[in-house]
């Protein structure tokens, strides 16, 4: 099976894990802190503003707590987004307000965001679809002008930039994902960036049960009763650990080669499918923007899209669509405006296999089989 997503792990990651085993410290510790510091260097931010979490989802829920969302509040986000973002908002009692996206890039424009803002808007959440930064810089300017916090869901954009600036540094809060399907994979894990230093300190407290002193051992030399609890917030345990951080440190070091290969795969698809009838290729990132190339998507006639996907699966090529529109999910209510760009994209878009382990032969196979499947299903039925 040619998978749509696949991590790249090897001897270096195994060696890093072995070092953690040898240290006999598996929890959040020195390797976690080192990973935070190295990721901070990658972003160009202060390491004290970063927190390694056990998932990107945990970061989104922490963001909702930091923003003190609650009933009566609205949070604007694109309908083409992962369910975790909407869940984090809805769990507080606040209301996700879904905006439209460009049907080709599947990213919202600043205009889409502005049209959804009301006097009840407490935050905006944006996803960088497939790693394309989209109009995040313009959206950040809009949010600052309106006094509305911006949360960047940078799960797809670990290496994406706008004019040399990393995605995840435009907003007030940002999250990244390192789950098993991402460009950088630690199995489970995520990173949280909080621009405000005080909120960043609160995030670290909330991430470990709301304890002001997360370690009794660390307090033993400054307190006569270091085992006593000092609860300042009602938090949970969502910290990352040294095992996953050790893997993340190696993956971060390999990130440039990962993105280089993914870029080459995307370019190969562009060439191999350039004249494919019935296949529309994704737009390239605008000038000044670079992509992590998390997704490569094509758009087909909605009448054949699902049948093409089924045919490719029969040929051992796994394709999919991410992310199904959230405004169609009953759990988030039914009172949503018409979102024509989102609906059009959802019915026509198909993600092709894209990961750094793909061989040139596999890329050629995917392109060849896609051409054949589209031609087969687009042909008029014989009578």
Automatic annotation (TrEMBL):
GO molecular function: transaminase activity
Cofactor: pyridoxal 5'-phosphate
Key words of the record: Aminotransferase, Pyridoxal phosphate, Transferase
Homology family: Belongs to the DegT/DnrJ/EryC1 family. L-glutamine:2-deoxy-scyllo-inosose/scyllo-inosose aminotransferase subfamily.
Protein name as annotated: DegT/DnrJ/EryC1/StrS family aminotransferase
Organism name: Streptomyces bohaiensis
Source taxonomy: Bacteria, Bacillati, Actinomycetota, Actinomycetes, Kitasatosporales
């Amino acid at each position: 099976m040619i998978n749509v997503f696949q991590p790249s792990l090897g001897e270096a990651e195994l060696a890093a894990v072995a070092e953690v085993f040898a240290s006999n410290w598996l929890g959040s510790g020195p390797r976690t802190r080192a990973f935070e510091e190295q990721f901070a260097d990658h972003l160009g931010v202060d390491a004290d503003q970063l927190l390694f979490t056990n998932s990107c989802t945990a970061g989104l829920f922490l963001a909702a707590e930091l923003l003190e969302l609650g009933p009566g509040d609205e949070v604007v986000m694109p309908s083409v987004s992962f369910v975790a973002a909407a869940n984090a908002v809805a769990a507080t009692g606040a209301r996700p307000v879904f905006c439209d996206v460009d049907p080709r890039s599947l990213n919202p424009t600043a205009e889409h965001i502005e049209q959804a803002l009301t006097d009840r808007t407490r935050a905006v959440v944006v996803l960088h679809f497939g790693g394309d930064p989209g109009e995040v810089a313009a959206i950040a300017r809009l949010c600052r002008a309106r006094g509305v916090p911006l949360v960047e869901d940078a799960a797809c954009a670990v290496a994406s930039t706008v004019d040399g600036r990393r995605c995840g540094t435009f907003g007030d809060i940002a999250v990244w994902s390192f789950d098993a399907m991402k460009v950088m994979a630690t199995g489970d894990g995520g990173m949280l960036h909080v621009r405000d230093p005080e909120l960043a300190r609160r995030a670290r407290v909330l991430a470990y049960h709301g304890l002001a002193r997360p370690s009794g051992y660390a307090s033993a030399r400054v307190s006569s009763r270091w085992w006593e609890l000092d609860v300042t917030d009602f938090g949970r345990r969502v910290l990352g650990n040294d095992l996953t951080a050790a893997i993340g440190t190696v993956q971060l070091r390999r990130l440039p080669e990962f993105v280089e290969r993914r870029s080459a795969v995307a370019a190969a698809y562009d060439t191999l499918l350039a004249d494919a009838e019935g296949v529309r290729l994704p737009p390239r990132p605008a000038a000044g923007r670079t992509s992590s190339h998390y997704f490569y998507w094509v758009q087909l006639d909605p009448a054949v899209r699902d049948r093409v996907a089924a045919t490719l699966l029969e040929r051992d090529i796994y394709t999919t669509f991410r992310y199904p529109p959230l405004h169609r999910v009953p759990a988030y209510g039914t009172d949503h405006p018409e979102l024509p760009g989102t609906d059009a994209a959802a019915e026509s878009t198909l993600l092709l296999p894209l990961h750094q382990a793909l061989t040139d032969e596999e890329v050629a196979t995917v392109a060849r089989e896609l051409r054949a499947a589209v031609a087969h299903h687009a042909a008029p039925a014989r009578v």
